[in-house]
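Re: that chain you flagged

S.,

Sorry for the slow reply, it's been a week of failed gels. I finally had a moment to sit down with the sequence you sent. For the record, here it is as I used it:
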Amino acid sequence: MIKVMSLMKRKDGMSFEDFRSWLEKDHPKLAKNIPGMRKYTVNILAKANDELPFDGVSEMWFDNEAAIAESFGTDGGKAAGGDAAAHCSNRVRLVMNEHVQW
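Prediction finished late last night. Pasting the structure tokens below so you have them in one place:
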């Protein structure tokens, strides 16, 4: 499997608490509609830190890179991407191979 990690900074003017709520509760409802995604997790800073470049990271697992492209090209993928764009001032997407060490 291959993983997409999306590093996200909340949009300007958005409180950390609102960002946390969105990433924990609202955005996953849209992520569920992305076909081909095998697993989805979100990671959120334990407490706000405006000096850091990102507030949260989502992890999305797919079978391969072709599945990533196909999934994000669907209506569900586009809706989730649009929702993230509306709530983030910066997003960096990394396509990764995970190597569990222990």
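What I noticed first: DSSP finds three helices and four strands in the chain.

Talk soon,
D.
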